[in-house]
Amino acid sequence: MRFIILVTAMASGLLACGGSSSDAPPVTGNPGNPVGVEPVEYEQLKPAQVDSEPLVAVAGDELSNFLKNGLRLQTMGYQFTDGESVDDTVDFSAPPASGDGGGHDYSDTNVHVAGVDEADVAKYDGQHWFVSYVPQGTATNLPGIQIFSTEPDIPAASLVGAYSFADTEWGGAAAMYLHKDGDTASQIVALRNQWGSVTPVLPGPGLVVDFASEIWPGPVNSELRLEFIDVNVPSAPELSNVITIDGALINSRRIGDTLYVVSRYDPWLYNLALEHTADGARADNEQFLQQTNLDDILPGYRIGDEEHTLADSCLVQSSTDENSGFYSLVNVTAIDLASQSVIDSLCVSSGVNDMTMSADTLYLTGNSWQSDGQTTTIHKFDLTDSGAAYSATGAVRGDLRGRAPYRVHQHEGYLRVVTSDWNGELVHKLFVMEQNGQTLDAVAELPNDNRPEAIGKTGEDIFAVRFREDQAYIVTFRRIDPFYVVDLANPLDPKITGELEIPGFSDYIHPINDQYIFTLGQNVNGETGWTDGIKAQLIEVAEGVPSLVGEVNIGQQGSRSEALYDLRALSFLPDGNGGVRIAFPVKVHARSDSETSAWQYSGLQMLELVGVDANGATLEDKGVLIAEAAGSERWDSGFGARRGLLHDQAVYYAHDNQLWFAAWGSPDDPTGPVGGEPIACTEEIRYGMSVTVWAGDDPCAAQVTLRDDDYVEQVMGIADGHGSCVFEGAAERAGTYDLTVVLEGYITEVHSGIQVSADACHVQTRYRHINLWANE
Fold it and tell me: What Pfam families does its record include (predicted)?
């Protein structure tokens, strides 16, 4: 195939991303057709519309005319612009059927759907951990993959192999899969992009606007490379094959031996000129377009010396006619990992801006503005042995807010969708849809006339949604966090069965089983509205009525975790005794001598759910495996892969190209970093506990006691000049402490199970702020 397309992506002024609003005017202007070619009525050209009618496949001259009309609209001085879009890290899978750990004695990549694997920066086969390597320092360092051998029984680990990519232009291995021979990895599949200027987001609901600035030579598309790396001998990995696809990677999923890659490509022909930049440009452009073959516009893929078109037909809106044009192409490409070959690629050219995927279905969703508000259009595709196949289309009122992975869920023949709509005020709705031929029809919604209770209080936005079988969990937030349980057992009559109000909000919801939900979010200062640390919670949802049964607070203002926005940063492992172990990376800030919250440490936070197979479950803080902390010459640079791995009683933590490990429950005695430089420690003495007490005129009269088994310390206080007293104890002593604060005339405060961890240099101070109440 002859490629005269400039393969890369466009600068921001030419992002070609979708149809227009439903009442967009046709483009006008002097046709200026060249002599000797078929006339094109330029004044009749219009962007393709986004609507709820079924898609139709076009090919040959129809598809060629459709794409060329999109190019004509571009060169005339009009542009398709991005509507609301997803970011380049968005995942598009659907929620889980269960909260299990994958059936192994080690933690797999945390995914939305059991059996639907997701790419990540670290992958494990039970013997070797493959972790993306991100170089620091000079540009001559090449990105690659480190291979660690694990011995969980000891525990121990060692670096046994490394693979370096041959270049830096394609970036590192931010997306990896393992292809296994039995239980052992035989191939790493690394997805890498050579970025152009077309952003890796889906085409959105475009608007036709005046061309504000000259962009030349036009969109520069990315290229996506799938590199197959043979790791049958972990100490000597080597490249075995490469598949290159035109376009920017949006995301991917693996089901069995089939990898689904979703990419975006914006056609552009190098010879085209923008009309406002040259006299006679339209005539020259038209002459060139008339002589251009369809193959020269479509994206392709390459394996070795072979070149192929991804797809020679494309799905478009059924309202498309000979005057319609569109720009971006989305391809869903199915790849057989066993044979390392392309099975098929499905092309869609429509106004879509988000997606979600389950074990057998893919949904593309798009927005359009109608006279009475915003509408979400949903296209359904079945996943078959021969790739993706179009199935149906429907629409509901409102917007998904770029959160289709959590807001769209298929279960037992019904599609459940949660939208938000602004029409004077923010309104949230849950729709239940059913397929009827090629149409997705809404068969129920909530709230309704019979069940008018709103989802969320006035002005509250949705922060998290998660479906599990016959239930939905929704978190809204403005100043407090209402947690709603929605019963979907009767899909034609959804209903809210319970609500729980908790300070702060949840970013992530993880169903453990029918009875318990784990959430991860942030504390919020009720007066200022500022976030104030990370918050993990265990919520019981038995009988559809939520109640908080456990909570762990981590750090203060400024504390962060990748797990708040990337579910793959969380590790889950059932312990076989009715419990679940959880680990996720944290960067913890806390206040010490001043009101400013400063960085304290970065590491792997460990939690444990105890007794979730029965009533009375608890959430326990199991401490932090610390890799970097204040008080040493190390500083959290914020680069590189950060992932936890749980295997039997062992805990592993990959942190910025280095590996740390310890036994579960013993984070104070880690080994590491494997392959790292020694840490230079300061000589200061740090305290394990810092307790600030407020109580009447003399808070320093309080008796503050720290107890860890046989260790007991009575801590003396020092007035801080702000009406409170600070008690510091457990100098350089890690442990699990019970804290008791007693003051005559006040209610005694008892805090149990406070885990104080240590890195290679110092203990990491745990802070408690206690306001004693008068004993009336």
Answer: Beta_propel (PF09826)
In order, the DSSP letters of 409-448 are: EEETTEEEEEEEEESSSEEEEEEEEEEETTEEEEEEEES-
- Distance in angstroms (rounded) separating the CA atoms of residues 394 and 407: 15
pTM over 0.90: no
Rounded to whole angstroms, the Cα distance separating 364 from 350 reads 10
* Side-chain half-sphere exposure of 619, counting CA atoms within 13 A: 22
Cα separation, 102 vs 106, in Å, equals 8
Q: How far apart are CA 158 and CA 384, in angstroms?
A: 41
**What are the structure tokens assigned to 451, written together?**
């069940």
Q: Name which of 774, 733, 772, 734 is nearest 751 in CA terms.
A: 772
Ordered by where they begin, the domains of the chain are: 1-121+174-401 (no CATH), 687-771 (2.60.40.1120)
The whole-angstrom separation of Cα 462 and Cα 172 is 34
Spell out the SS3 assignment of 529-549.
CCEEEEEEEEEECHHHCCEEE
CB 331 within 8 A of CB 299: yes
Burial class (CB in 10 A: 0-12, 13-18, 19+), 153: exposed
Could you give the CA distance from residue 186 to residue 188 in angstroms, rounded to a whole number?
7
Q: Rounded distance, CA 667 to CA 735, Å? A: 10
Mapping DSSP to helix (H, G, I), strand (E, B) and coil, where does residue 75 land? helix
Report whether pLDDT(237) > 80: yes
DSSP element (H, E) containing 286? helix 281-290
* 3-class state of residue 689 by DSSP: strand
Can you tell me the distance from the alpha carbon of 398 to that of 418, in angstroms, rounded to the nearest whole number? 9
How large is the angle between the packed helices 60-75 and 281-290, nearest 10 degrees? 160
Distance CA 440, CA 366 (A): 14
In eight-state DSSP terms, residue 612 is T
Are the C-beta atoms of 703 and 727 separated by less than 8 Å? Answer: no
**Euclidean distance between CA atoms 208 and 197, whole angstroms:** 20
Name every residue whose Cβ is closer than 8 Å to that of residue 478 and which is 6 or more positions away in sequence: 457, 459, 460, 461
Give pLDDT tens digits for 501-533: 888 788 899 999 999 999 999 888 766 667 789
Q: How many residues does the chain have?
A: 776
- Asked if residues 573 and 587 have their Cβ atoms less than 8 Å apart, the reply is no
Residue 54: how many CB atoms within 10 A of its CB? 18
Query: What mean pLDDT comes out for the span 617-644?
Result: 83
Q: Which helix (H) or strand (E) holds 72?
A: helix 60-75
Q: What is the pLDDT of residues 408-456, one digit of tens each?
A: 999 999 999 999 988 778 899 999 999 999 999 999 999 999 999 999 8
